[in-house]
Amino acid sequence: MPSLWVDADACPKVAREIIVRAAERTATPTWFVANHTVPLPRSKWVKALAVSHGFDAADDEIVERLAPGDLVITSDLPLAMAAIERGARVMTTRGEALDESNIRARVQMRDFMETMRASGEHTGGPKGYSDGDRREFANALDRWLAKNV
Fold first, then answer.
1. Is 89 within 8 Å of 147 (Cβ atoms)?
2. φ/ψ of residue 98, rounded to 5
3. Which end of the chain is less crowded, N or C, counting CB atoms within 10 A of the terminal residue's CB?
């Protein structure tokens, strides 16, 4: 059975709640990995894993532990690329699938935007997490679980 691996450092609370409910409903082993303690309900299926503080420590732990076919939930594009290279599926907390067909272009755009910001451009940040994002994520997660669990 595949597991869910959640990059919990930047996971919105509402997405975390959706993941917990889905994991309980489908009896799916789920790990929230962060470099801080993540508040989670007691559960047989949902666990928190706090890693040492350090650059990309949580990301490295996820990549180390995941198995091919697992689902990684993250908006961190380098983590997504590493997970895809290890055979995992990847979804953002907005329900967007990241895979071999789109990850390289997304990483290149991210790198370009970082270069723009470093040169003094004000590019703005990501938009806020909306009710539409919540619905898209919940629906995408449900579809993935229906196909894979």
1. no
2. -115, 130
3. N
Domain span at residue 110 reads 4-148
pTM of the model: 0.88
Radius of gyration of the chain (CA): 15
3-class SS of residue 111: helix
What CATH number has the domain bearing residue 60?
Answer: 3.40.50
Low-confidence ranges of the chain (pLDDT < 50): none
The two structure tokens encoding residue 143: 């579809």
pLDDT digits (tens, 9 = 90+) for 29-64: 999 999 988 999 999 999 999 998 777 899 999 999
Q: What is the pLDDT of residue 79?
A: 96
Q: What is the pLDDT of residue 111?
A: 67
CA dihedral 106, 34, 61, 110 (to 10 degrees): 10
Of the candidates 92, 90, 110, 109, the one whose C-alpha atom is nearest the C-alpha of residue 100 is 90
Contact 80, 103 (CB under 8 A): yes
Q: What's the structural domain count of the chain? A: 1
